[in-house]
């Protein structure tokens, strides 16, 4: 079909002229209906074109006006929401025809061009292509609250065949658009150029690009196979000089691609919203980055300033979502690779300033950018000609000035991210990066330089350290941290490990492990202890992270004994954790490191690294970490239930009992032998014989062998058992065994004699253990009864006899006579003259230390106390006699070891004889205030265990003495008390804190005039010992109050406030409590407590709670407050100041309702309103002072000498008419204007200076810059931001660039400009 036939087919001569005129008059903004018969005939039209179309049309008398009107009819038909497939396809074809006609020379002369129709045709894709076809639909299970009230738009349901038709029509339309740009210049139509830029940017994500894309200046449109490829080519065409000023074109293109790189969707005038980073979105972003790199490489100096600003806007508009930040940082890394060293240094300088002003998302993103840049090769200083910018090129600046400075950020999220990235830096291959991290945590002052060795220009970088001569001034480097700073950095990192925020603690752990792995910080126990302690952190996620960290460190340093110890101290206690997931993680680590590495042993067999590590750990467990054996037993108990301990494992263990690491093998055997079915008893008995006949067997190994012998006792025949019993008795009677072995030997003796018949078992114990008691008694009697028996005393032998006596007596109480008890008693006091007759008993009113002094050493006396306690456990009649003695000894005793053991005895007796010992709990708890830290800690642990098992109740002064330990002078004890209270005791009694809170006020102030509180009995000595009365102890008291309030629920806070009003304030208001000096102190402290921020409710439903609180406050509190105020005024009490301060804090949320609250006291309401207004003015004044901008921006550490210089000061662009409004540096007349006001003033000033707004330049532009001015980019001091689309009525869209003319710059050095708000206010009042 030729052109004329096609036009005849359109039947343009039948189109009514009136209809054509109506279409043109409406500016193609609405679809004018045609007659149905004509519309049906036109519905099957097709396109066509010819080079001589205008002549042909003229010859055939075809109306161009009618043709354009008909095409617009089809175009508008496809834009309708109810358009069908055929209408949308026809619309796209009609738009293609119009664009082709427009691209033919002479189209403007023949009046084909119309700006509205051009924009409509070029943007037709967004109307014809279903917008939801490429997106995942939301699940049907939406909440009713979200679904109700929103009328859903009808979705177009198109099948695949229909979509392909539309896609082909779209493809032809974009081809036509490209052909139009090749022949139709947009130089005088900037609005159309801006519209095309937006359209092509939207088309970038139309469909995926198969096989990637290539960018070149000239491309064959017919060879482009996808819509995004053509869109990129269209953006490239728009950057050519044909379509206007290239700088303006680049500005538009970079602005649109900004949101593609940020993976955001920008609506018309709305806030950009992040997209889900799907593979399609990521692919489009990657293509956009490559396209920008191509433009910069192609246009070079012309595009580099815009690349600088694009990077700034990526940083400025970044969101906090980690996935988006990560991808955007990679994009920034690719884009910076296209920069010259000077431009790169300018960007780093801007980034340095940006991190100090940005929001949390910006500061997080700056860290991500630094990590990406550190992966690039380090730029050399010689590549940058400007000496002021050279300091920004090294990786050291990125780490020390950009990354590490965020360690003290206000946001915990930024702090954590900084620490994580610091650890990742050490994994990078760059030696300069590793060296920079090392310098942060180690001294750098070892380098010395003689005066004659200083080279020319060395002062430009850093100052060298001079330490060559005495009496020489030492100047440390300005960029390298000193030894003191390095220690402070490490101390700060260790503090972050104990931070209050979970995320910071986890990140600090990762950073610490990285520094330890790479030998940045010393591998000492003080550093590793923090790791093992975090395995017992209150937060489950931190515990898991700590377990992973110690495992990672052990894998990196398997031969380091300190690391092995830290691993054991961290992992083994986690086996007993209350959280099952932590238990599983610890068991998994033990299984991998211990169980899986136990292989059979053969002489000459080489152990691999994993096996050596296993035996090293077991050796540590036998020596330095004996206290963890109980945790190890728990692990094997769990594994036995899971059938993880196999017969092969036990056989392999026994093969190691004769190797050099036999101690570890016996340790494992002692844990698993009970669950074994078949054992090689011969080897175990051989080991027993070797131990009995040798004195070289280590103590722990002996204990483990004895444990194994006890476990296999039931499998031995009678002869073997009797032989072992005889050997064991002979061994014990030598009294040469260590104390631990004595305990294990007696326990093994019990195992060997145990049978199903209890009487037979007891007879066996009476025989053998009774024999040991008799031997010990025979040894002690001559020493104690003889006048000179203690002169040649063998202290060690005496202790072993006492210990054996105590252990054996537990198994044969019937064999312990009164003589034995008095002998042990005499060890503690003096020789008993009437011992044989036993006619005189020990007085119960005096402590042990008050009897006649004896010559026994403290060590013997301390063990004597333990032995006496064991005797009391089996003889109830001894309890009544010795409990008062033990209680007095805790108070009056002088020997620390004796008093410590008495505490242990009393707590053990509390388990066996709870009712008897309960009376002495105040005596035990008094040791929480002992002068010796070890006794305070021991008492805290023992009482916590008793409270957990409910052998002791929170009665009397016990709770308040625990509170005093919270402010113990030893931080470790205070921390232990906090852990015991929060994680062990509060869980059992959640109301514990709130129940005792009010009484804390009276107790710690030693106030006992209240009828209900602080009435429990206590001695004057105890009262003084635990008193926190007085101003010097106020800080300690409030630390306790804050600790309690921080762990209140909102209900408890509300109730305690009301209870304080009823039981404290009301008592003073009703004269139940005298308002004397002590009463004034109590009242003042109460008002200060009520003013604490911890007293405020934290509920999510704060509005509802606030209304309830308001009602209760008006009804119950206000009357009491009014009465109290009147009373305090009469007495002229200084407490009135605290009352007003409390009201001021309380009424902050009700400052507009003061008169309603205090309608009964108008004077109080007026005073309170005045106080609130005064406080508000002071707060506003402080905020103004904080916001006072200094004209001189803060300088970077190494570029202080150049304040005026800009990072791009050598870059001068040719004049072009665009600019972006930017927050200006404060000038003296407007230094106190708000951010928005300053911006509006700046825009006005630009307009007054002769700014010209060309026709068509309103849309897509900001205020234009006066032509003829020399433009200089200034991004070193301020953030270049894309502001709202509605800045002023004449600004339709924000700009990407921030420019200033040289005339607007203040010449010379900028001066400080600080004005006092008071002075400014005074000036304003004078005017």
From TrEMBL:
Keywords: Cell cycle, Cell division, DNA condensation, Mitosis, Nucleus. GO terms for molecular function: histone binding. One of its GO terms (cellular component) is nucleus. InterPro entries: ARM-like, ARM-type_fold, CND1/NCAPD3, Cnd1_C. Residues 129-158, 1182-1204 are annotated as: Disordered. Residues 898-1063 form the Condensin complex subunit 1 C-terminal domain. This is Condensin complex subunit 1 C-terminal domain-containing protein. It is found in: Nucleus. It comes from the Eukaryota. One of its GO terms (biological process) is mitotic chromosome condensation. Residues 148-158 have a biased composition (Basic and acidic residues). Residues 1186-1204 have a biased composition (Polar residues). Its main location: nucleus.
């Amino acid at each position: 079909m030729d052109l004329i036939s096609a036009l005849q087919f359109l039947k343009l001569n039948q189109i009514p002229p009136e209809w054509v005129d109506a279409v043109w008059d409406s500016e193609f903004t609405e679809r004018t209906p045609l007659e149905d018969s004509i519309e049906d005939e036109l519905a099957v039209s097709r396109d066509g074109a010819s080079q001589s179309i205008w002549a042909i049309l003229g010859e055939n008398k075809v109306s161009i006006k009618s043709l354009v009107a008909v095409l617009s009819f089809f175009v508008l038909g496809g834009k309708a929401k109810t358009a069908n497939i055929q209408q949308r396809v026809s619309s796209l074809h009609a738009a293609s025809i119009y664009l082709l006609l427009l691209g033919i020379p002479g189209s403007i002369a023949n009046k084909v061009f119309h700006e509205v129709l051009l924009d409509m045709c070029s943007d037709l894709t967004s109307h014809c292509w279903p917008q939801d076809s490429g997106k995942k639909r939301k699940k049907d299970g939406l909440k009713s609250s979200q679904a109700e009230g929103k009328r859903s738009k009808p979705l177009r349901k198109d099948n695949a065949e229909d979509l392909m038709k539309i896609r082909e029509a779209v493809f032809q339309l974009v081809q036509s658009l490209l052909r139009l740009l090749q022949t139709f210049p947009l130089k005088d139509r900037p609005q159309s150029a801006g519209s095309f830029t937006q359209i092509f940017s939207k088309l970038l994500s139309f469909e995926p690009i198969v096989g990637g894309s290539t960018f070149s200046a000239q491309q064959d449109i017919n060879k482009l196979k996808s819509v995004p490829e053509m869109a990129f080519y269209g953006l490239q065409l728009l950057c050519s000089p044909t379509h206007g000023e290239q700088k303006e074109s680049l500005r538009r293109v970079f602005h649109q691609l900004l949101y593609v790189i940020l993976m955001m969707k920008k609506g018309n005038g709305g806030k950009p919203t992040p997209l889900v980073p799907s593979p399609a979105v990521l692919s489009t972003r990657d293509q956009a980055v490559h396209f920008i790199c191509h433009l910069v490489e192609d246009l070079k100096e012309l595009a580099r300033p815009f690349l600088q600003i694009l990077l700034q806007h990526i940083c400025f508009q970044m969101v906090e979502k980690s996935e988006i930040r990560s991808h955007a940082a990679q994009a920034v890394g690719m884009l910076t690779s296209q920069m010259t060293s000077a431009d790169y240094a300018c960007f780093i300088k801007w980034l340095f300033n940006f991190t100090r002003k940005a929001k949390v998302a910006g500061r997080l993103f700056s860290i991500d950018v630094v990590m990406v840049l550190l992966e690039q090769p380090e730029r050399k200083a010689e590549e940058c000609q400007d000496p002021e910018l050279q300091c920004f090129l090294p990786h050291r600046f990125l780490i020390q000035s950009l990354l590490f400075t965020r360690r003290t950020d206000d946001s915990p999220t930024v702090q954590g991210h900084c620490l994580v990235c610091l650890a990742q830096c050490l994994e990078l291959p760059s030696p300069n990066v590793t060296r920079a991290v090392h310098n942060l945590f180690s001294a750098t002052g070892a380098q010395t330089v003689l005066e004659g060795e200083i080279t020319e220009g060395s002062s430009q970088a850093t100052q060298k350290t001079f330490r060559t001569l005495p009496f020489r001034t030492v100047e440390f480097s300005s960029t390298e941290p000193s030894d003191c700073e390095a220690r402070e950095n490490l101390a700060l990192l260790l503090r972050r490990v104990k931070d209050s925020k979970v995320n910071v603690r986890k990140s600090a752990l990762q950073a610490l492990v990285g520094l330890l792995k790479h030998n940045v910080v010393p591998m000492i126990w003080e550093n590793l202890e923090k790791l093992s302690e975090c395995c017992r952190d209150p937060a489950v996620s931190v515990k898991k992270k700590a377990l992973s960290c110690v495992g990672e460190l052990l894998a990196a340093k398997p031969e380091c004994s300190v690391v092995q110890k830290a691993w054991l101290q961290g992992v083994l206690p986690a086996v007993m954790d209350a959280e099952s997931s932590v238990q599983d993680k610890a068991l998994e680590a033990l299984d991998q490191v211990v169980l899986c590495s136990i292989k059979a042993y053969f002489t000459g067999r080489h152990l691999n690294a994993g096996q050596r590590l296993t035996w090293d750990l077991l050796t540590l467990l036998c020596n330095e970490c004996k206290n963890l054996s109980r945790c190890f037993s728990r692990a094997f108990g769990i594994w036995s239930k899971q059938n993880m301990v196999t017969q092969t494992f036990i056989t392999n263990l026994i093969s190691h009992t004769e190797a050099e690491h036999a101690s570890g093998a016996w340790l494992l055997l002692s844990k698993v032998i009970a669950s074994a079915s078949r054992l090689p008893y011969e080897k175990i008995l051989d080991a027993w014989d070797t131990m009995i006949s040798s004195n070289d067997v280590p103590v722990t190994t002996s204990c483990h062998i004895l444990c194994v012998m006890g476990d296999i006792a039931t499998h031995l025949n009678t002869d073997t058992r009797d032989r072992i019993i005889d050997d064991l008795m002979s061994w014990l009677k030598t009294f040469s065994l260590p104390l631990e072995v004595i305990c294990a030997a007696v326990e093994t003796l019990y195992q060997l004699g145990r049978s199903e018949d209890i009487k037979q078992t007891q007879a066996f114990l009476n025989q053998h253990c009774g024999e040991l008691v008799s031997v010990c008694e025979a040894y002690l009697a001559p020493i104690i009864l003889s006048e000179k028996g203690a002169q040649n005393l063998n202290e060690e032998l005496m202790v072993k006899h006492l210990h054996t006596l105590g252990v054996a007596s537990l198994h044969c109480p019937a064999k312990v006579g009164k003589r034995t008890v008095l002998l042990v008693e005499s060890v503690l006091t003096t020789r008993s003259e009437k011992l044989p007759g036993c006619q005189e008993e020990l007085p119960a009113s005096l402590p042990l230390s008050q009897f006649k002094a004896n010559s026994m050493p403290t060590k013997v006396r301390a063990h004597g106390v333990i032995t006496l306690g064991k005797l009391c456990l089996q003889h109830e009649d001894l309890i009544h006699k010795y409990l008062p003695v033990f209680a007095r000894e805790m108070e009056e005793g002088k020997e620390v070891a004796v008093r410590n053991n008495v505490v242990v005895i009393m707590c053990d007796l509390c388990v066996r004889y709870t009712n008897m010992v309960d009376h002495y709990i105040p005596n035990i708890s008094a040791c929480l205030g002992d002068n010796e830290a070890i006794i305070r800690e021991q008492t805290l642990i023992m009482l916590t265990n008793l409270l957990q098992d409910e052998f002791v109740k929170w009665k009397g002064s016990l709770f308040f003495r625990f509170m005093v330990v919270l402010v113990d002078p030893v931080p470790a004890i205070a921390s232990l008390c906090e852990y015991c209270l929060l994680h062990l005791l509060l869980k059992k009694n959640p109301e514990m804190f709130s129940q005792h809170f009010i009484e804390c006020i009276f107790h710690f102030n030693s106030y006992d005039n209240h009828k209900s509180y602080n009435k429990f009995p206590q001695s004057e000595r105890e009262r003084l010992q635990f008193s926190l009365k007085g101003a010097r102890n106020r800080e300690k008291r409030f630390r306790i109050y804050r600790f309690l309030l921080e762990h209140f629920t909102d209900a408890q806070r509300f109730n305690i406030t009301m209870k304080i009003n009823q039981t404290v304030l009301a008592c003073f208001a009703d004269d139940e409590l005298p308002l004397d000096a002590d009463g004034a102190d109590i009242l003042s402290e109460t008002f200060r407590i009520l003013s604490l921020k911890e007293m405020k409710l934290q509920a999510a439903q704060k509005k509802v709670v606030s209304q309830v609180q308001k009602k209760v406050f008006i009804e119950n509190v206000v009357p009491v407050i009014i009465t109290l105020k009147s009373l305090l005024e009469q007495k002229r009490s200084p407490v009135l100041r605290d009352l007003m301060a409390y009201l001021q804090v309380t009424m902050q949320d009700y400052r507009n309702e003061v008169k309603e609250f205090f309608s009964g006291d108008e004077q109080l309401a007026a005073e309170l309103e005045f106080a609130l207004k005064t406080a508000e003015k002071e707060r506003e004044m402080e905020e103004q002072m904080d916001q006072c901008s200094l004209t001189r921006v803060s300088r970077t550490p190494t570029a202080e000498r150049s304040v005026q210089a800009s990072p791009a000061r050598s870059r001068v662009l040719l004049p072009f008419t665009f600019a972006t409004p930017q927050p200006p540096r404060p000038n003296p007349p407007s230094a106190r204007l708000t951010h928005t006001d300053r911006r509006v003033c700046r825009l006005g000033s630009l307009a007054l200076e002769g700014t010209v707004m060309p026709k068509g330049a309103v849309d897509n532009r900001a205020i234009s810059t006066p032509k003829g001015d020399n433009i200089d980019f200034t991004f070193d001091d301020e953030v270049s931001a894309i502001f709202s689309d509605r800045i002023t009525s004449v600004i339709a869209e924000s700009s990407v660039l921030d420019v200033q003319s040289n005339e607007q710059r203040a010449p010379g050095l900028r001066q400080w400009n600080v004005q006092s708000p008071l002075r400014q206010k005074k000036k304003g009042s004078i005017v």
